[in-house]
Amino acid sequence: MNLLSFCRRLLSPSSVPDFEATEARAEQGDAGAQFGLGQKYSSGETPDSPQAAEWYRKAAEQGHAPAQYNLGLMYANGHGVPRDDAEALLWIRKAAESGDAGAQHNLGGRCHRASFRERKPDASECRIEAYKWLFLASVQGYKGSAAACEQVTLVMTSAELAEGNHRAASFVGPKAENGNGR
After folding, report:
1. Global pTM value
2. Fewer CB atoms near the end CB (10 Å): N or C, the chain?
3. Helices then strands, each counted (H, E), the chain
4. Phi, psi of 67 (to 5 degrees)
5. Cα–Cα dist 60/52, whole Å
6. How many domains does the chain have?
C-alpha cells in the first residue's frame, strides 16, 4: 500500500471516530469515552480546557488512571481549572498508585525536588519515595525514568536505597479488570 492510499484509508469517514456515539457513551458514564472527550477538548483545533477538565474529572472519579494524571497536570498548570498544587498532587498520586508510568515519573520527580527543600528526616522520606516512583516508572520503560532514578540514588544512603527497593518490590499495582489492568 502506498502512502497516498494509506492516508486516504486513514482519513476515510469509516475510520473517523463517531463523536456523537462517543459523547453518548460518555454521558452514560463510560470512563474511556469520557477520557477520549477530555483528550479531544484539550488538543482539538480550538482547545477548550475547562470542558477537557470536566470530562477528565468524570473519568478520573471512576478510577481512570490516565484521566487522573491529565487532570492532575491541568491543576498543576492551571489549564481549565484554577492552579492548585495540592489538587494536582492528589490526582497525580492517584494515577501513580493505579500504575500510570507517566504519573509515577512525575511524582518521583516531585518527591526528588521536595527532598532538597525538607529537613533531614523528611528529606530522607522524600528521597525514598522519589526512588520508588521513578524505579516503578523505569520498570515500565517510561522515558527518562531510569536516568532520573539513577540521579536519586547518588544522594541516597544505603539504608534509604534498601528501603526504596523494599517499597518498590512491595508496590501493589492496579488490579486487573477485564484483562486490561485498568
Report:
1. 0.83
2. N
3. 10, 0
4. -70, -40
5. 12
6. 2
